[in-house]
Write a structure and sequence with these properties.
Order of helices and strands of chain A: HHEEHHHHHHHHHHHHHHHHHHH
Radius of gyration of chain B: 33 Å
Strand content of chain B: under 5%
Structural class of chain B: mainly alpha
Shape of chain B: elongated
Number of helices of chain B: 25
Oligomer: heterodimer
Order of helices and strands of chain B: HHHEEHHHHHHHHHHHHHHHHHHHHHH
Structural class of chain A: mainly alpha
Radius of gyration of chain A: 22 Å
Helix content of chain B: over 70%
Number of strands of chain B: 2
Strand content of chain A: under 5%
Shape of chain A: globular
Distance between the termini of chain B: 102 Å
Strand order of the largest sheet of chain B: 1-2
Largest sheet of chain A: 2 strands, antiparallel
Number of helices of chain A: 21
Largest interface: A-B, 43 and 38 residues
Helix content of chain A: over 70%
Low-confidence stretches of chain B: none
Distance between the termini of chain A: 21 Å
């Protein structure tokens, strides 16, 4: 049975909200909040419906021909649904957070309008059924994120925005080049039809390798692979909910997701393996992981440290993909979800510290655990997960990466994992130490940089509960990794589809 | 069925008690800022946290719990090999918890009367103590690798809060040494587990051991795991956190740290190394050498320490070195392993409880209970003599491994271990001497929690061979003819200590060099080396950064030049405009020409 309307409606929930938000006046806080939350909830529901349908064996398709030979295709497969699920879930949390965060700042209408557009493009990327549709939404994402990055409007933000555009538009151009070239070779590239390129035979291998590299550069800019990562730490000037979304689901994750699609659904894992490109991916991922961690160590401010940590962590996904074998695939896919949950928690917490206490630097965090216990517990959970300690989700990713490394006959990857864990510990544990064990303003030593009392609890409830919720999720998906519908279960489901004919 | 319920309860109970405190805190939200009375944090319920585990250890029959949904599939079980470890761990945790109630009573009173700082510190202790316990119990009961690793990690990281409880500078130094070494250990364990579990594709520890034994790189995997768990088990070179963390931790925390938590390293070895199988003999030889070095060097370095708890920490390193030697023998001679496991279990239980009693005794000599001085010091000396191998459980332990090693033809090893026992005796004399020098005068009633827990611990420690449910039979009590052979190290040690005492009467000048030998020995070298390395890395990083900045600048410059060149293009506009008409005419002519030619063809 084919239900065309479901993916289309899912996309429309966030896309149709955009004109409505722009139509509402700036001060219509209540209506905008209801609209945003309503759409977010509806989308979670629709995605859940599709997950259910997929487990029942249904398929969802929507397509129309744009011009001869080029089709716009939305289709639902397990991989795309994973990404859609992650983005709809985190969109809900981030919407709540953003409402609290932008409580009384100007230009909220513009913000939420582009925010919805950004999420719409992420869902589009998730549900895109062929390369053309993917490219469409990928570029839409670039453009819709720019106003969010420069939202504050000061010189530093504008500079960061320019850098962001410089990197992403160049990347987009490369991607366009690659997509057009593939189009010329085989026509419309539908995801999941892996024989297309494999059937070209060994003569085309040279060209295919070059095209892979071009596409990889195009996607690698967003996925922040070293040395294409320069825009990410600078984009930190954006408001906290934007950084959270940027790092956890939208931009960085879109790049990583694109690489996943490229390897599994365009080239196919066996062809990529044959071309010897998996080793290349593994090496790039290793360099990125280690470089990101080392740079994170040197940062004195909280958000840039988290940014470099993202660079390092997102490459775990690429590393997982590059390990030939089911375990590696599971690791890469499951980390796509886990990293999103943990990193979004960390960014919410960093935002809470900045909003409530005016803290931006790490050495200002002394004793913050006493002033803001729940936020600090959430931060601790996220940080321990990043290090890869059980029971937080990061451990599951690391475990499968290790299994995959041995399966792919690349045991040296385990050494990379261990070194990276040690580095993660080296830059996260000092923060936790300051939070919990150093006396600070809460103990009568010194003063917070800019303390505001935003709510009844340690800070405004709008800011607090999303952080707590994602932290709880991060623990639950690790602790209960074996239950049905957990990220691990979904990833295993996708992998079975990939490796079993 | 009942046993399985108890197993769940044993793990849940400490967490529930922790949750109780947290819930109370949540309900009192904001109340903490007001002055006034606070609740008793370390109450009777809090002390009861290891009781279900104790019951579980005493419950007859095996327990098994399988949960598919937990992590990657949980399998927790209790059988005969784990039972003694669980039993003595739960006992020591209970006694130390009771002791903590008395030890922290002044802090408790300060907290109750409204001292916010004292309350906060006590709160941290009250929350992290059950968490550490839960981690410890999980690692003892877990059969699946992820749960085991989780228990190990939870215990390790939660115990950090116990170490830094006092909050002063030394406590933070000790905590830092503890944490850095622990993280290194965790890293090696993670690497070893991923490598071996990935190679043999299993999730349970039993299958893992079997798999490593046959794996191609099994020896290297074993070496990695041995080193990783060796951080906890105080292997020489990795032991530096012990003498730094023990003196600064609150005394009950030191007791469980040295009594139970370092044993987690031994559990790690037993659970993951392919002991009793061929293939790791070279590792075994290294282990024997390192173990003996640790046993002797720690004793030598420990006797010049001043803080009684530092001396006791070095004694732990020394004793763990002896146990490591026994592990090494098990690796070199696989057939001996089943018998050795029994001996090692006995040794570990004996050391755990005796060392617990000794640590608890340090607090007792600072706050002596109201009892005759001779009785008090006799009771303080008793576990020391036992640890030196001269009495009760120590004698039984020593006899059991000596008999085993003699039968297997390892006489040289027995001699070395006896020399180490001389060192232990010296360490014990030193610890007791320092306790005597620093003895307190304020007396507490003998029925207060502290002395009761201490007495209980001594009773449990000296009677280990009587109640320990060991697998397999070992000759526990030596025949009279062997006594001289067993007792000479203790006597020699006592004699040496006496000589030193006499000598110190004569020589009044202080030996200054000894003051410079700080606890933590190699730690200071490591710290210096790490600082140097970090400086090098920083320098390289800065140089790299400068180069990157230069490159970026050059790129920007090119870009600016390129943009300028594009802007220059407007100059050509004029030419284009002038040429427009001729150009169009030319095109028209060409087109016409084309048409004409085409028609000609047609």
């Amino acid at each position: 049975m084919s239900q065309a309307w479901l993916p289309l409606v899912t996309l429309a929930t966030s896309l149709l909200v955009v004109p409505l938000i722009f139509a509402l006046p700036e001060r219509a806080w209540g209506a905008r909040t209801v609209l945003n939350l309503g759409a977010a909830l509806l989308k979670v529901l629709l995605v859940a419906l599709m997950v259910w349908g997929l487990y029942q064996g249904e398929s969802f398709h929507f397509s129309f021909t744009v011009v001869q030979g080029v089709t716009f295709l939305l289709q639902v497969d397990a991989l795309g649904l994973m990404f859609a699920g992650l983005s709809s879930l985190l969109w809900l949390a981030t919407t709540v957070y953003a409402i609290g965060y932008l409580e009384d700042s100007p230009n909220r209408k513009r913000f939420f309008g582009f925010f919805s557009l950004c999420v719409a493009s992420t869902v589009g990327i998730a549900l895109a059924g062929n390369l053309f549709t993917f490219l469409l939404f990928y570029e839409l994402l670039t453009l819709s994120t720019y106003p969010l990055v420069v939202h504050r409007g000061h010189t530093k933000a504008l500079d960061a925005g320019t850098t962001y555009l410089r990197y992403t538009l160049t990347g987009g151009l490369m991607l366009l080049l690659g997509v057009v070239a593939l189009h010329v070779m085989v026509g419309d590239v539908t995801f999941g039809e892996r024989e297309m390129l494999a059937d070209l035979g060994p003569d085309a291998h040279g060209l295919l390798t070059v095209l892979f590299l071009i596409l990889l550069v195009g996607l690698g800019v967003k996925a922040a692979l070293v040395p294409l990562h320069g825009w990410l730490p600078r984009a930190m000037v954006a408001p906290a909910p934007v950084s959270a979304l940027l790092h956890a689901v939208a931009v960085v994750k879109a790049g990583a997701f694109g690489i996943v699609r490229l390897v599994y659904d365009v080239y196919g894992i066996s062809l990529t393996y044959e071309l010897g490109l998996l080793t290349l991916l593994a090496v790039i991922a290793t360099i990125t992981i280690l470089y990101g961690s080392i740079r994170a160590l040197a940062q004195q401010e909280l958000k840039p440290r988290l940014a470099y940590s993202t660079i390092s962590q997102v490459s775990y996904i690429v590393l997982g993909i590059s390990l030939f074998g089911p375990f590696g695939t599971v690791a890469g896919l499951v980390h796509l979800m886990h990293q999103g949950l943990m990193k979004v928690t960390l960014f919410y917490c960093a935002g809470n510290y900045a909003e409530e206490l005016g803290i931006h630097r790490i050495d200002e965090l002394n004793g913050a655990g006493r002033r803001m216990p729940l936020t600090s517990i959430a931060f601790t959970v996220g940080a321990l997960g990043m290090i890869g300690l059980p029971p937080v989700a990061g451990f599951i990713s690391k475990w499968y990466l290790g299994m995959g490394a041995v399966q792919a006959n690349m045991p040296w990857v385990i050494a990379v994992l261990v070194v990276s864990s040690l580095l993660n510990a080296a830059y996260f544990l000092p923060i936790l130490y300051r939070l919990w064990f150093r006396p600070g303003p809460a103990h009568g030593v010194g003063e917070w940089p800019d303390e505001r009392r935003l709510g009844r609890f340690e800070t405004s409830g709008w800011l607090l509960w999303p952080a707590v919720a994602t932290a709880v999720f991060s623990v639950m998906v690790g602790l209960l990794a074996g239950v049905p519908f957990s990220p691990l279960d979904l990833a295993t489901f996708v992998t079975a589809e990939e490796y079993l004919p | 069925m009942m046993a399985t319920l108890l197993l769940v309860l044993a793990l849940l109970w400490p967490l529930l008690l922790m949750l109780r405190t947290l819930l109370w805190l949540a309900m009192e939200q904001g109340g903490l800022k007001r002055p006034g009375r606070r609740p008793v944090l370390l109450d009777g319920w809090w002390v009861s946290s290891p009781i279900p585990a104790l019951l579980l250890a005493l419950w007859p029959g095996e327990a098994l719990l399988v949960m598919e949904g937990w992590l990657l599939g949980a399998r927790w079980q209790l059988e005969d090999v784990r039972r003694p470890w669980l039993l003595f761990s739960a006992m020591l945790w209970t006694l130390a918890g009771l002791y903590a109630r008395g030890y922290l009573v002044s802090e408790q009173q300060a907290a109750e009367s409204g001292d916010v700082d004292a309350f906060r510190r006590l709160l941290g202790f009250a929350l992290l103590w059950p968490l550490t316990l839960a981690g410890n119990l999980l690692l003892l009961l877990a059969e699946d690798i992820p749960s085991f690793y989780m228990g190990f990690a939870v215990m390790t990281f939660a115990a950090y809060g116990l170490v830094v409880h006092a909050g002063h500078r030394d406590a933070h130094l000790g905590g830092r040494a503890y944490l850095i070494m622990a993280v290194l250990g965790e890293g090696m364990i993670l690497g070893g587990l991923l490598w071996s579990a990935g190679t043999v594709q299993v999730l349970t520890l039993t299958e893992l051991r079997a798999g490593i034994a046959t794996a191609e790189q099994g020896a290297w995997m074993s070496a990695l795991l041995w080193l990783g768990f060796g951080v906890k088990a105080g292997v020489i070179g990795l032991h530096v956190w012990l003498p730094l963390a023990h003196p600064v931790a609150p005394t009950p925390a030191s007791a469980v740290l040295s009594g139970v938590m370092v044993k987690a390293g031994l559990i790690g070895w037993i659970s993951t190394l392919p002991l009793g199988a061929e293939g790791i003999e070279p590792l075994g030889r290294v282990v024997i050498v390192l173990g003996l070095t640790g046993a002797l060097a720690a004793a030598l370095y420990g006797v010049i320490q001043r803080h009684p708890k530092a001396v006791l920490a070095y004694s732990s390193v020394s004793q763990l070195g002896m146990i490591a030697t026994l592990f090494g023998v098990g690796m070199v001679a696989p057939p001996l392993w089943p018998a050795l496991l029994t001996v090692i279990t006995l040794f570990a239980v004996h050391h755990g409880l005796t060392k617990g009693a000794l640590f608890l005794g340090v607090g007792i000599s600072e706050h002596p209970p109201r009892m005759p001085a001779w009785l008090l010091w006799l009771l303080l000396v008793l576990p020391a003599l036992s640890l030196a191998g001269a009495m009760t459980s120590g004698l039984a332990t020593k006899w059991s491994f000596k008999a085993l090693l003699y039968d297997a033809g390892h006489e040289a090893l027995v001699t070395w271990l006896s020399v180490a026992a001389v060192g232990t005796t010296l360490l014990m004399c030193r610890a007791l001497w320092r306790q005597w020098c620093e003895r307190g005068t304020y007396r507490i009633p003998w029925y207060a929690p502290m002395p009761l827990a201490w007495l209980g611990c001594i009773a449990a420690a000296v009677s280990v061979p009587l109640w320990m449910p060991l697998v397999g039979e070992t000759p526990l009590w030596p025949p009279l003819t062997e006594w001289l052979g067993l007792l000479w190290p203790a006597m020699l040690g006592l004699g040496l200590a006496g000589l030193v005492l006499l000598a110190s009467r004569w020589v009044t000048r202080e030996w200054r060099a000894a003051r410079r030998l700080l606890p933590g020995d190699l730690w200071w070298w490591y710290a210096r080396l790490a600082t140097k390395l970090l400086n090098v890395v920083h320098g390289a990083g800065d140089a790299w950064e400068r180069r990157a900045v230069r490159l970026r600048e050059r790129l920007l410059e090119w870009e600016a030049r390129f943009t300028a060149a594009i802007s220059e293009l407007t100059r050509f506009e004029l030419y284009f405009r002038r040429l427009a008409v001729p150009l169009m005419v030319a095109v028209a002519v060409l087109l016409l020409l084309g048409f004409w030619l085409g028609q000609m063809q047609g």
